[in-house]
Amino acid sequence: MNHGSTSRRQAERRTPPNAVPTVSVYDFALRCAIRACLEQTGQQRPEPKKDWTDRHSVHLGVSDMLSNITEKFSDDSRTDRLTREIVRGLMRRLDDIRKGRDTSKPEYQDTRFLSVVTQIKGELQGYRFRPSGTVNDLVILFTKTSEVTLKRSSAMPAAVYEELNRYTSRFVELVILTLQEDAPSSATPELMEKLRGFLGPTKSARNNSDRRLSARPSIPSLVPSYGSIEYLEVFPMVKTVQKLFQVTDVEHSRKLRELHSICTESALLIDMKKYITNVHTGQSFPGKRDDFPDKQVFDNWQMREVKQLTEMMKSMMLLNPTLAISANSETDVGSSNLLSSFRNNIYSGSEVSLMKNEMSQGAYTYIPSDPRAYFRLLMNMAIDYNINVTPDKEKAKTSVLSHQEDELLRECWKTWRLSEAFRAVLYLEAINTRYVHNEVEFEDVKDAARSLDKVIKESGINNWANKDRENLIRAFDELNQTLLHKLTEALSEYWQISPEWVGDLVSSLDRIYDNPAYIQGHRGPLLALDTLTEVVEGAAVVRWRSIGKIEDDNYEDGGITGLIGLAEMLIKEFVSLTKRRFKTPISGVLSVPSVVMGRQMPFFALQMENWAYLPEAKNAPIEVIFKLYHKVLGLKRLYDQYGPQQKKSLFKVESWFLQHVKRWLETTNESTPGWVESAVKHDKFTTVNETVPHSSSVVDLFTMFHEAVDFVQKLQWPNELQRCRFLTALSKVIGHALDKYTAILEEMIIEDIYPTLGHEENSSATVAFFSKARLQLTGNHHSRKNDGVPPDFTPQLCVKINDIEAARSKLDKLYQIIDVDDISYYMRENDIPAADIPEQTGFMYSIKIVRAENLQPLDNNGLSDPYAIMEINGKQIARTRTVYETLNPRWDQVFDIWLNEKTVDVVAIVYDEDMIGADEECGGVWFKLSPEYYDDYQQHDIVLNLLPQGRLVLRVSMEGEKNDIQFWFSKAFRTLRRVENDSASLIVDRMSRFMRACLSRKTLDKLLQRDRSFFRFSRSVKSIDPTLQDCEDAIAPLLDYLERNLKILNDNLSEGNMRHVILKIWKEILLSLEGVLLPPLSEHPSEMKPLDDYEFHCVYKWLELLKVLFNGGEDEDGVQLETLENAQYYSLLAINVAYNLETEELIGIYNTALNNQMELKLQGGAKADRSKSVYHSRHTAKQQKADKKAASIDMPSSETVLRILRMRSGKRVRDFLRSEFDKRNKPSTSSGPAANITATKDEALQPTTLVPPIIPDRMITPSDEKMMPLP
């Protein structure tokens, strides 16, 4: 049994039980092939011979040619519409022929042809401006006009139609030429191809046809004539029919002979007439009113069918008028011939009787009784043949059907007057059926669906017949079931299917569900997708079992390695599902990633829950723990974004990993001291590069800080409050690290400035006693050796100071990165305060006695040997070391005090140490220690005004901390700023002794050559007026020292630190010069004598020389003059006004200055705004700008006047000094210590500046606080 019979049986099995036999389909398919052959031979037939023996062939050729063109031109697209360009161009050419200007063709000189041209030109006159109709109408008009003209002049039909053929060809040539030259936009390939059909075949086409025919083995030497049986046998479509139905050559040739006389033009014309009659009368075929959804659709179909067939019939009868006469006779002959031939055919008796029954009922020649059933069987046979019989190399690449099979189906569909909708739906059904049995690919289904979509778009489903709509819905139902089945198979292994495959299935389903006709008959078609959810859920469980083995196979380390591998695989798979395989839900309903996550994530969460409580998990390596954490966090993000809409709280990240974050914080805190020590140890304290003034230690330290902060930030902890707590705890670690770092640098800075200070502090009491005794007995000779030129500063010292500033700057950037303000605000708004906090009963204070200023001179040398003590309730709690020969001692000693009382009054007293007799009191002051002032646990620099004179600077803090990120940053900022200020002060302190030694009365005596007598301590006075050069030479060591060290400082300190230090040095120089002019402030007359004019002028020359040095000399590239000439500078100049005045005048100036000060105080200066607590401020780079007031040179200050009066003698002066100091020591507003002890906080703590506004002692910060003095 061959493949052909197999395909035929498959087609019959797919045909309903009441379907027609295959033999009938073969018969009518062959008739359509014969018709196509006759139609094509009519177009390819060469010009007839002169003997006119074959009239029928001439008529048939012209008729078929115009019939085909008419049918094609009748398409709704109307690509052959007349335009103005076509009409005008054709009229011009016709006019040239009519007037004899164009005689290129013999016909152009024929009077009959010219007569037709004249008539056509007249008809075209009315279309010049508003053309209507088509090129087809124009050709038919010319043909009709030519036929009438030729029949008038000739009675021979053969001659008429030969001339008509030639005339029509010439006219079509003119039309083609007009289109090409005058209307190229209208010369579409389709239109040009149709017009060339009137011209007959080209020579090459005839030669090719002859060669093909001559190549047949059966007739190697003869070329079959057009329209003959032999020609029909070799016609491709006829051979396709034979091939599909597997008919032998003998049987096929016999059948062709039987049908040759039946399948004529007359039979086709009669079929058209019958068809039109049936359309008008509403017969079951081709269709009646009930077959359409409404009357409008039926009327439109009826009108379209009648119009198309009428135009075809007109063309046929126009070209062959004898058709109207001979149609009935030919039909009778054909019928009788067909019936008589049944006696010798190959068919069975039942098949013959069926065909006789069709003919007896007046059936069509070309159209079977049930065209739909015939076409269905024919299509199935064509598809099966191509699938089962046709070799793969001969199959069409883009379609199931070959080109020949498709042409046959098109010819039958067109001849049998079937709708495009029927053909497209039938093809989709057939392909879908074979796709179910895996006989075709899904691409074939898509191709069939696209063809159907095209038909739906072009014709509109609302214009379809009812049966076509029913067939469409049935086809969609079958296709929907097929696609759902395929999709179910795919989703059962969702993790490995191709996304393109899923996309094709989903798009095909969407095409069905978007069809209006399908929606009308299926309420809620997407409900069918609900069953797929269960499929995906089951597949997700199966998949989990396979990937869950990873965790089971890695349990050596408590399962954490397995969990990491499991999480990695899940992330990879979920990303593939969401980003590649299922980017969008299927038909907008079924989200595969959501269903899969909804099933698998609870299993994973259970695994994590079990692991979190294992003993091994608590001690697992931190690095591995957080690797797992980031994998879990990635899964959580995917679940939150793509998981089910009704999500469960599966990922308890806080409970799983909170303890490990705390472990990391504890480990980091323990490692911090090592970080700091390592950074300092490996630092050579050289600048990183030419543009960066700090060293590597601060870079290394903050690199570690940033790494720690990045670690917390990258956690992206889901609980915001806990994240804020992590950063707060980390800020504490950073604060402690910076405290240690600044403490180490501060110690190194002190060691660089005072290398032996630590040794002296640790010396025994016995050694200290003997050193002090030797100092006083030898007349301070020990101290004088320290007045030599001190060692120069080193670049390493400057770099260390720069490191402090860089740390403060980097801390400010870190503050911004962490968003400290936002974190603090969030915690204050959301954090739950701890309940039942026990009241604090003990308080630890840290008090650093920093320094004193402007103390009373109690020794004969005009200085003192001060030390400080603190007492509470008469009991001494602290004592500093003694600093010899100074009125501005610096101790920098820290004392820790534990108090059980909440508020305590403390008295601080500065004494002058004496070897013989009791130590004298330089001054004292009361202040309070209370949480009311220090409960922010920050360091506070407080300045206490001593009585009778001087100031004491303390640094007080209460031990404790706050769980607030701003607290730790603020504390770190204060610490860095304090060390930065103290370092600058230490530099000046180291330089001050040498500056005071150079800028002294001893240097003046040398300059003026005045020697002091050893016995009378008197000076021999010489009147020498030194030059400016002499004055410069006198302080040359100081100038050289300053020039050398200022260069070192300027080259190595940062710009901010250099500005800070240089202003402090300038202030110290002004104070030193003031000390040459005036004795210290005291209530006792001084032994210091006023300077004479020579000495006075030398001091001011030194002032100008030093101002020039600081200003930068001739280049003036140093400190600006506005900065140098500050209030303190003008106060020094003001001494000149009152220096030589009489005592009474000085007393008057003093009273005036005192009254001015009182008025200023009564007017009220702006108190410091404490509404913004230091606790809530960083103050990293802010500098309070001092008011620049030009001091009045004509009016020295009251203290300056008192210091001038000390150099005067007489009872009046002694009484006045004693009286004024009594007023200072016992102010009228005071009522004893209790008055000041009970002062309010705002009165007790007030910001103050320690220096004149232009040259501040340090950067003004809110940490400066002042304690009101107590008598």
Automatic annotation (TrEMBL):
Residues 1032-1150 form the MHD2 domain. This is C2 domain-containing protein. Residues 826-944 form the C2 domain. Residues 626-745 form the MHD1 domain. Residues 1227-1239 have a biased composition (Polar residues). Residues 1173-1182 have a biased composition (Basic residues). Residues 1-20, 1170-1192, 1218-1242 are annotated as: Disordered.
